[in-house]
Amino acid sequence: MSVRTNRPRRRLLTSMAAVFAAGAFVVGCTSNEPEEEDQPAAAETGGGDDGDGGSGNDEPGETVVIGFSGPEADHGWLAAVNDSAIAEAESYEDVELRTAEGTNDANLQISQIETFINEGVDAIVLLPTDGAQLTEVAIRAMEAGIPVVNVDREFSSPFAARATILGDNHGMGISAGTYACQLIEENGIADPVIAEIAGIDSLPLTQDRSRGFAEALEACGQEVDNRVAAEFTVESGEEQAANLLQAAPQIDIIWNHDDDQGVGVKQAFDNAGRDEFFFIGGAGSANAMQWIQDGEMEATILYPPTQAADGIRLARLIAQNKGMSDLVQVEVPRRIVLNAPVVNADNVEDYLHLGFES
Amino acid sequence: MSDQTPASPPAGATATTPPADEHRRIEAAAAEEGETRSGFVRFMSSPFGRNLGLILALLVLCAVGAFTAGDRFVDTDNMVTILRFASIIGVVSIGMTFVIIGGGIDLSVGAIVALSSVWATTLATQTMAEDTHWLLMVFVACAVGVGCGLVNGILIAYGGMAPFIATLAMFAAARGLAEIISEKRTQLVDVRGLVDTINGEFLGIPVLVWIFAAVSTIGWVLLNRTTFGRRTIAVGGNATAARLAGIAVKRHTVLLYVVLGLACGIAGIMLTARTGTGSGTHGQLYELDAIAAVVIGGTLLTGGRGTIVGTIIGVLIFTTLTNVFTLNNLDSSTQAVAKGAIIVIAVLLQQRVSVRSADSS
C-alpha cells in the first residue's frame, strides 16, 4: 500500500522500534510469579496420588475429551476454581481438556457450549455465569448425549445436568453461626454484639449464607445486631467495614462472608485500630489462612475453590462409565453438596493447600 | 424548521428549483465527498475496496482457524455456531451503524438490551402472553427499545445534549431500571412458544440467524435505497448543509436513535429466547462490541460514511476470532489483546487510506 514515499515508512520503523523497546521493558515488569515457590497453591491439589480407597478409578482408562467453561476470573476465588480445574485435568493422562474459560456474557458462554456440542466432546463441566441463563444450552447438550456436570451455580431445570456439585452456602452460614455460639460460650461473653458483613445482597448465595447464620445464632439465643453488605471486592469491603465500625463502637464477633472482600475489611479494621472482636471470614483465601496463622483472624469458613476440579473428576468418571469407588452405587451421584468446615488455628495446616490468592 | 433563511442557491440554480433536487444534490455531495481521486487509492477508499480489505481479513482469520483447528473449524455446525453467536450483537451493530453514520454515538445499547429483556419477561407480560400469544413479548421488547431510543434521540436533538452524555445517562438508568424491575433476579421464560420458535430452526438454519439476515437486508435497503438512508449520510456528513437543504435534522436524529432502539429491542428478545431468561446482566459491554464492529467495518466515527456490509463483516471478524480462540484453548485475556490490536490496525489502515487520498486530491 505504501509504494510512493519512503519517509513515512522509515518514521514508522523508528517508532515501531521505540514501541518494541518500551514493550520489552514493560513485559519485563509484568511478571506476577512469587519470588519463592514453597507454598503449594490451590492448583496442585489434583492427581492420582491421593488415597482413593484402593480402587482402580485413577488408573488410566479410555481417553475422554472434556469441555470446561467458567465465568471470568474477576476475583481470587473464581481464578482458583479455573486454575484447579485445569491442573486437575492435566494430572490425568486420559483426559483431554478443552477450556473456554472467562466470560460474564451469557451469549458468549452459550456459544462456547455450542462449540463443545459441535465438537462432540465426551462431557462438559460448566460453571455458568448465571445458572438460569445457561440452562437452555445445557439441556441441548444433554439431548445431544453429552453429560453435563454443573458446578456451583445451579441450573433452573433438572434435565440440564447429569451431575451437580455445589458448595454449601446455607451450610457456611450454619458453620459460622455455630462457631460464633461456641466462641460466646467458651469466652463467657455476656450480651454479645454480633455483626455480619455480607456479600452482594441480591444473590441467592448471600441470602442462603445469611439465613444459615441467623438460624445457627438463634439456636443459642443470639441474633445479628449490625449487618452491612459489600460486593465481594476489596474496595466495597473496606467501605462497608468502615461504616460498620462507625455504627458499632463495641463488637464481639464479626462474620465476613467473603475473604476476597476481606482484604478490604481487614484494612478498615487496621485503619480504625480496632481488634476487640473475633473476626471470622468466609471462602478460605491464602490471606485469611495466613492471618489465622499469625493470630490476626479467628477462623474462616471454607467454600472450596476445588469444585470445578471435582467436576472434572466426576465428568471423567461419567464419560468412562465408572462409579465413585467409595460408594456402593455403581453410578456417579446426581448431586453432591460439599461440606463447609470451620478453619481455625487448630486445623489451618490441613487446609493451607486449598487457600487461594485473592 | 430551517427555511427561515434560505440558502443562497449555487450558481446556475434558479429560484424555482424544486427542493427535492436540492436535497438530492447535497445528499449526493455529502455521500460522494472525495470521489475525485485516482487509481488504487480511490478503489481502496470506495465502499467496495474497503469491504474487500475486510473480506480479506476475514478470510485470513478463517485460514488461521482452518489451519489450527482443522475439521473442527471447517464444519457446517461450527459455521452455524459462529453465525448464531454473531446474530444478536450483529442486530445491535446494524442499528449502531445508522447512528454513527448520522454523526452520533450510543453507549446505552447493552443497557437497553437488558431492560427490554427484563420488561418482556416480567410476570405480568408473561401472563398476558400466555393468554394471548408469545408475539406480545416480542412487541413489548421492541416497544421498550423504541421508547429508550426515543428518549435518547429527543435529549440529543431537542435537549441539545452531547450524544456521549445523553446515552451515558441512559446506559446507567436503563440497567438500573432493569435491576429494579427484575429485583436483580434472573427471570425465567415460561412461555415455551417464544423460546422454541426464536431459539429454534427454520429450514435447518437457526431462527436467530434468519432474524439477523432480515435485519441486515432491511438495514442495507434503508441505507442505500431510501431517502432515509441518503438523509442519514447527509446529516452525518455535514449537519449544517443538510439543514440548509431543508432536511429536518433534529427529527431525523431522533429517528436514528429510534431505529437503534428498535434494533436493541429485537436483540433483547433474541437474547431472551437464546438464554431462556430476562436479566439485568444481559448485554454487558455490547456498546463496545457494537462500536468496534462498526468502526472496523469502515464507518467513520465522525459520521457521513459507512456501510452495512462492512459492519456485518466487522461483527463476523470478532465472532470468528472468538471462535478460533475457543477452538484453540486460548484464554480470553489473550483474545482481548488480539481484539484491541485488530481495532488499532483497522483504524490505522483506514486513516492512512483517507490521508493519502486527501493528499492526492
UniProtKB/TrEMBL annotation, chain A:
<dbReference type="GO" id="GO:0030313">
    <property type="term" value="C:cell envelope"/>
</dbReference>
<feature type="domain" description="Periplasmic binding protein">
    <location>
        <begin position="66"/>
        <end position="322"/>
    </location>
</feature>
<dbReference type="InterPro" id="IPR028082">
    <property type="entry name" value="Peripla_BP_I"/>
</dbReference>
<keyword id="KW-0732">Signal</keyword>
<dbReference type="GO" id="GO:0030246">
    <property type="term" value="F:carbohydrate binding"/>
</dbReference>
<dbReference type="InterPro" id="IPR025997">
    <property type="entry name" value="SBP_2_dom"/>
</dbReference>
<dbReference type="Pfam" id="PF13407">
    <property type="entry name" value="Peripla_BP_4"/>
</dbReference>
<feature type="region of interest" description="Disordered">
    <location>
        <begin position="31"/>
        <end position="62"/>
    </location>
</feature>
<feature type="signal peptide">
    <location>
        <begin position="1"/>
        <end position="24"/>
    </location>
</feature>
<comment type="similarity">
    <text>Belongs to the bacterial solute-binding protein 2 family.</text>
</comment>
<protein>
    <submittedName>
        <fullName>Sugar ABC transporter substrate-binding protein</fullName>
    </submittedName>
</protein>
